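Example 3.
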Amino acid sequence: MHTGHLLQPLPAAGPDEALDTLLARGGVRVERIVSFGQASPDGFWYDQAEDEFVVLLAGRATLRFDDGRDVVLTPGVWVDIPAHRRHRVEATAAGEPTVWLAVFWPAAIDAAQPEPSHRAD
Amino acid sequence: MHTGHLLQPLPAAGPDEALDTLLARGGVRVERIVSFGQASPDGFWYDQAEDEFVVLLAGRATLRFDDGRDVVLTPGVWVDIPAHRRHRVEATAAGEPTVWLAVFWPAAIDAAQPEPSHRAD
């Protein structure tokens, strides 16, 4: 049994997001990510092999999805991001830390997903 | 992609804890649990087949483990509870909602764990 606190201490602000793996077991990984105004680089999209569940604990962030939908995260907002659902961090709060809790796990094999077919077009 | 808010709306206080499954996919289950002063019944211990990661979002709670250790949870405190680590909810805050985010997943087979042996005692 391990325990910790997501909000204290927080790492000092830096040029990069601060990432801590809180646990990794049985294929599941739990991370705390602290952002200080960072966003994804222009044109960059996450296309992850893993499923992800994320919830914001502090600060503010905007996730953009490849269908153009934006989700604004404030503390308490969670987002379920299936594997290969392309998204990017459009913005995180400037001047205060943004604290994310993220859970990653192997994507389920989706039996309803047809095999890619080779089409003649 | 699904999204929601852990803190609003909150269910009305009731005699039982309020449990919402936010997602269940690939063997992983994410639940929001809202307590209103409930605790585990006297003498009751959770002995779960699944691994659990829990973090408190609001309120206050005390988890007791079978080695006598108490963990007091306030917002931001997380606890990693491996399968079969016996524990109970000793207390949750009276007069305000206590909001837990809990993640459950199948326990990893621990290769270091010996098979139970049949002893002569």
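The radius of gyration of chain B is 16 Å. Chain B touches chain A through 38 residues (CB under 8 Å).
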